[in-house]
Amino acid sequence: MDLHATLADFSLVKGGLLFEAEQRLRRAPRHRYDPVLRALVVAVLAWLPLLLFSLVGGRHAVASLFDELQVHAQLLIALPVLIGAEPYIDGRLRFAARHFLHSNLVRADGLETFEADAHRAMRWRDSYVVEVLLLTLAYALTLIAPADAATRSWTLGPDGNGYSMAGWWNLLVSQPLFRFLALRWLWRGVVWSAFLLRVSRLPLTLVPTHPDMMAGLGFLPVAQASFSPVVFSLAVVVAAYTSRVEPQGLSANPVAYVIPLAVIAAGAVAMVFAPMGFFVPQLVRAKRRCSAGFSPLAARHSRQFEQKWFEGGPEKDLLGAPEMSSLADIGTAYTLARRMRLFPWDLLALQAVIGSALAPLLILLVMDRQFLAVLKFIHDGLR
């Protein structure tokens, strides 16, 4: 089967109602910096009108807006990251999908089903109904979210009743846009997880002696870690919201900041790497088959080696003896098979997801002017 013909257009990003609308509105051809420009344009569209409308409302409205750290974190950090990370995440997932075929992990009798599963995932990606439902849910979440007039006076009109122009823009454009993009990434994660679930049910040619100690699936945890920018975006918003609830600062109450981000990190690890559990049954069966066949093979090889070298009469020339290399090779293969993980995971991938969830703490430390103090504390503790 031709790899490029099968998955040349596989993508979880390049599809859907919003993507097609962007394609129709775009006059110039795409270029390499397009994701960055799109992120900047959307961020400006969501945030700049809030500033301009607040200027109309006077100095008090502007001061109130700039005290709203959560809004700035959403629209100036999280929102651009959700858009700018699309090519990176899409590229890693496309590589993972192609790697199943490139590494011959799918048996010949499952290739047709694999291709059908890939096209099914892209059909779900292109669903207009799903995007309309996500947009409706984004508006519903925005309308039911309570607004504290005492701290969000920039959203209120001059008489304190009703919404100001900035408040209406925030209610109808900025907040629904951020929530829609976040929900769309959640949907893309569901589509990708469903694709992995269907792949895990195909006849796979797993190799227990593979050096990645995951039977050849070591590329999957790395691909899953590509969702780290999405995790970072959500963690930034949570950290900003915590700073609003705990205005005394990180240094005054560090537990109040650490616990929500720790919960985000734990939840992100569970959600990002949960699809790896789909492959556990096949990994268990592959390891059982390998153990059943490899142990007698290793025993016969070792017995023949001992008979030749320990009971074979006169001393032989050790230098360059092929039996020595053969013994080392089978020993390495046997060790890899015994150490094969039944749940595919990678330490660096795990650290990437956890680090993305905890990264906003560094931003808060800098804003709280405690970053150098924390570094000094760590340095003194290591001395």
TrEMBL record:
The keyword Lipid metabolism does not apply. The chain crosses the membrane at residues 36-57, 69-89, 128-147, 218-243, 255-279, 347-367. Keywords: Membrane, Transmembrane, Transmembrane helix. This is Transmembrane protein. It comes from Pseudomyxococcus hansupus.
